């Protein structure tokens, strides 16, 4: 899951550099939610 977040982050950086603001924003939003989901699952895993 963390790999997917990093992939979307890289896509967002490349899209932002090429001037595709919509794609960059969408990719960053997906990456942000994947990182949040990863952190929540990691905390739950540590607690159980």
TrEMBL record:
It holds the Pfam family DUF1328. The chain crosses the membrane at residues 29-47. One of its GO terms (cellular component) is plasma membrane. Belongs to the UPF0391 family. NCBIfam families: PRK13682.1-4. The keyword Nucleus does not apply. It is found in: Cell membrane. Coiled coil: none annotated. InterPro entries: DUF1328 (IPR009760). This is UPF0391 membrane protein Halxa_2843. Keywords: Cell membrane, Membrane, Transmembrane, Transmembrane helix. It is a single-pass membrane protein.
């Amino acid at each position: 899951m963390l790999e997917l977040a990093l992939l979307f982050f890289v896509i967002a950086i490349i899209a932002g550099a090429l001037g595709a603001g919509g794609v960059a924003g969408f990719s960053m939003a997906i990456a942000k939610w994947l990182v949040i989901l990863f952190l929540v699952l990691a905390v739950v895993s540590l607690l159980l």
